[in-house]
Amino acid sequence: MAESIAYRSIVIAAQCASWIFGQLLRLRYSVHAQFPSGDFRSNSEHCLIVAPMHKTAFDPCLLMIALNYRRWRALVPIRILATQTFGGPLRWLNWFMPLIRIIYRLEGAIELPPEDHNNGFHPEKVRGLLAALNQGDVIAIFPEGEVWRKREPAIGKFAPGVIYLHRKSRALIVPIAVWMSERAWPRRRYVAQFGEPVAIPEHLDFDAGAAWLREHVLTLYEQVRQSEEG
User: Fold this and answer.
1) Is 119 exposed, middle or buried (0-12, 13-18, 19+ CB in 10 A)?
2) What is 5-81+121-229's CATH number, 3.30.930.10, 3.40.1130.10, 3.40.50.720, 1.10.1740.10?
3) What is the DSSP letter of 23?
4) Rounded CA separation 177/155 (Å)
5) How far apart are CA 183 and CA 204, in angstroms?
6) Tens digits of per-residue pLDDT, 153-203?
7) pTM, entire model
8) Alpha-carbon span 105 to 98, nearest angstrom
9) Spatial CA neighbour of 12 closest among 61, 57, 64, 79
10) Helix axes 127-134, 161-169, angle to 10 degrees
């Protein structure tokens, strides 16, 4: 069922407020973004799949404030796949899930079904994102599925859900590499390298396509790492 105009207006307003208040994160992070020429120039970028690395729980906000207002406004509403189960250091957030679900609803986030370690990928897990793509929205999905904290390898394994969405919607994928400085204080440098929108080679199956996309993001990551650390 198509969403009402009123609800979509609420989502856009909520995302606008988040973009504005998210600028406060600049007090903690020195946020920068690098873009390919010709990218994000008009509303023609709608129906894109944004596929970033996942380095911190603040990635959704940091990636949005990395965009200036013109670029950000060309993309909203951006529908993000959001978890409903938190683990590791963020496990305490599970106590606040009723409040978090209200925020998800206001922001237009699409909840991932409860985690199932036995069945692997299933199309039902991304059905909401596919519906958003089919109505022309931009979606954001973290292919690693979790905050990846290891230095080696720099990027975790990509799940095939992003490839399934790409094949079903024919939307291009915007790969994003994220580099963060080791120095955490007084501000941590956070650099997002946006790549050109890509299409996954047709001869690759879902798993091979996910591996191909991971290698593409890894190339972007090495570029920004060498630029920042060199």
Assistant:
1) exposed
2) 3.40.1130.10
3) G
4) 9
5) 39
6) 999 999 999 999 999 999 999 999 999 998 878 899 999 999 999 999 999
7) 0.90
8) 11
9) 79
10) 30
